[in-house]
Design brief:
By secondary structure, the protein is α+β, with helices and mostly antiparallel strands. The protein has eight helices and 16 strands. It is globular and about 65 Å long.
């Protein structure tokens, strides 16, 4: 099914024809199951699920929480040191440092023990990996070439802190060279290419692995930015891999930032949503996740794709 040379993979996506037959009119929002693409869901989910605990924690969550706290409680202090803080953020991204030196940046400048203690209580709750591919149409219909691009310095085309550069670790090789993951990427690009007004046959695809722990009574937010766009043309906002001891995590897609609901669904393992992001100007969110049994570990893991032309 795949040929490989210099980390370039060629994918047969003819299975997408069957998926098209179910929905005659191209839609900017599609619910799918990996089994729709002739992927063995049980083995696919089992193989990927085993890799999420290998991912490092996302320390940018702590940096963002600290920034929001300082801006709210000490706005004049934040304004005074904002430029220095942004340089510290960039240093964290470029050199892949842990966040503790960055948090010390604020603690060294705050004369408020309670506030410093609150910063100390921030804990990471998401594990994350990131990998990039260049994807182009192949030599014939339903063939795509997928070239590995490595783990990028990542920035989203948005207007909040996600526009700043971030550096995430690469997923395990067993993930980014997984035959079914590559097939999934090819099929999703095939689906995107059949939307009206899509002329490009050359895509940059950024793959995200993310695991979110449900750590507290108020719930954990897989998308702490709330209703948002990712800054890509199309996205797989989430393909759920695991739901372990959790409730919640309902995916929602909106026609606008003002939340005119277009679609909502609680994704089960193996289910995903491919949707327009910037191309049709849709927005999305996911509700918090909560523990079902407070005595057991609880988490939700997903695979996401950002697709830009």
């Amino acid at each position: 099914m795949f040929t490989r040379s210099h980390f370039v993979h060629e994918v047969d996506t003819s299975v997408a024809e069957k998926f098209f037959a179910r929905q005659a009119v191209a839609s900017p929002i599609r619910l799918f199951d990996v089994s729709d693409f002739d992927i063995d869901a049980i083995s696919f989910l089992k193989e990927l699920a085993a890799t999420y605990e290998e991912l490092p924690f996302d320390y940018y969550d702590i940096a963002s929480s600290t920034e929001r706290l300082i801006r709210r409680e000490k706005p004049s202090l934040y304004s005074l040191y904002e430029n220095d803080w942004l340089r510290a953020w960039n240093d964290l991204a470029r050199h892949n440092k842990k966040v503790s030196p960055v948090l010390a940046f604020w603690q060294d400048r705050i004369d408020d023990k309670d506030l410093c203690d609150e910063i100390e209580r921030f804990q990471p709750y998401r594990r994350r990996g990131c990998f990039e591919y260049l994807v182009t149409t192949g030599s014939s219909d339903y063939r795509w070439r997928i070239q590995e691009g490595g783990s990028p310095i990542f920035a989203q085309k948005v207007t909040d802190s996600r526009s700043r550069i971030r550096k995430f670790a690469a997923p395990p090789m067993s993930v980014y060279r997984n035959d079914d993951v590559l097939k999934l990427i090819g099929v999703i690009c095939e689906l995107v290419s059949h939307n009206p007004s899509i002329l490009s046959n050359h895509y940059r695809v950024t793959m995200h692995q993310m695991l979110t722990y449900a750590n507290n009574l108020t719930g954990s937010t897989p998308a702490p930015e709330g209703t948002h766009q990712d800054g890509a043309s199309f996205i797989v906002s989430a393909l759920v891999i695991q739901r372990e001891n959790v409730q919640g995590g309902v995916s929602k897609v909106y026609y606008s930032k003002n939340k005119e609901l277009a679609f909502e669904h609680e994704l089960k393992p193996g289910e995903g949503i491919v949707q327009s992001d910037g191309h049709h100007n849709l927005w999305h969110d996911v509700t918090p996740i909560f523990r079902l049994d407070e005595l057991k570990i609880a988490y939700r893991s997903i695979l996401g794709l950002d697709i830009t032309f």
